[in-house]
Amino acid sequence: MKRVPILYVVIPCYNEEEVLPENTKRMKEKMTSLIKNKIISPNSKVMYVNDGSKDNTWSIIKQNHEKEPLFTGITLSRNRGHQNALLAGLMTAKEYADVVISMDADLQDDINAIDQMLKKYLNGADVVYGVRKSREKDTFFKRFTAESFYKIMKFLGADVIYNHADYRLTSKKVLDEFSNFKEVNLFLRGMFPLIGYQSDIIYYDRNERFAGESKYPLKKMLNFAWDGITSFSVKPLRFICITGFLILLISIIIMIYSLVQKVLGNTVDGWTFLSISIWFIGGLQMISIGIIGEYIGKMYNETKQRPRYIISENLEEN
User: Fold this and answer.
1) Range of the domain at 18
2) Residues of the chain with pLDDT under 50
């Protein structure tokens, strides 16, 4: 049986002034209950990560910290995106905590599932993934695209947990190992399974967003999905190679057919076929070059080794 652990809950925030009051209220109730029942240490805290918000998010975080030591936070020097903000929180929190839980600020993740996660942790799991039970509340389009994304990732060989986002528990041991992953193109939900260690899953019902607007519109979701695919699989490059061989085979067949027709003296009106072939192959080449360029671009970003985030203020150090 493990000793009573110090828990830090890391919550990335970008323009979340509307939801923060309710979030802090619910988190205080949950953390106080866990401390009272001696499930977590009294030194446990909730760490908000301000991802360069343009509203009063950081001011609210600082005010909460001044009123209640249970709450702390860090702010990034500028907006770096959800994955980098989450990484900044995880890497900061691991210096103070035995175990860290990451979740979104919008209260869609069920706070009561924290109890189940901690139970799994105390029973030996170093990583506990929060997985939503169903997507019945989603629109057909969102449900179809989300489920298709996970299936494509599996098909391409990425070890991702189906219907898991970034609601997870990780032990300090796992986060120490994770700090050795230096890539700039982050897809955290695909990176954690690479570490290994004992893991488990808890299922929960995902709620509607409490307030404010989603920070992941369709464009961002598509970009995120594409980053995940190209960061974890080279199969798209292999598909290009396979397609190239198929086109070569088809062109050889067409060449043989054309030569036979010429020998037989048959005249063939091939303008339509020729123009379609040119446009088809040209489009295929452009797509292929674009995919290759995407991988080269990621390699370019990785070789620069620029910092993934810069913390301008850490309330734990004040």
Assistant:
1) 7-232+306-317
2) 210
